[in-house]
Amino acid sequence: MPEYTQAFLVQDKDSGLFLRPREGDVGYTKYVDQAGPFDSYEEAFETAKYNLGANFLIWSFGRRVRH
């Protein structure tokens, strides 16, 4: 049976763009498959608060663990 972990995506409510963390910086993308998953809710929340203020959504999903 495959293993899964929980991951989080952040979406700006106004523009619909997703956060895309890369090498210590954060960009934006309109494509969910290019959005960067965060490993914890806290990390997603703090990054969203810093970059988007108060108008964002955090999506949670299961991510398959690759061995």
Give an overview of the whole structure.
The structure is a single chain. This protein is α+β, with helices and mostly antiparallel strands and 67 residues long. It is built from 1 helix and 4 strands. A two-stranded antiparallel ribbon has the order 1-4. The radius of gyration is 12 Å and the shape is elongated. The chain starts with a strand and ends with a strand. 13% of the residues are buried.
Q: How much strand? A: 35-45%
Low-confidence stretches: none
Shape: elongated
Helix content: 10-25%
Mean pLDDT: 92
Counted by DSSP, the helix tally is: 1
Number of strands: 4
Largest pleated sheet: 2 strands, antiparallel
What is the chain-wise order of helices and strands? EEEHE
Distance between the termini: 12 Å
Strand order of the largest sheet: 1-4
List keywords for this structure.
single chain; 67 residues; alpha+beta; two-stranded antiparallel sheet; 1 helix; 42% strand
Layout of secondary structure:
Blueprint: E1 4-12, E2 18-22, E3 25-29, H1 41-52, E4 56-64
Short description:
With 67 residues, the chain is an alpha+beta fold. The chain is built from one helix and four strands; from the N terminus they run E-E-E-H-E.
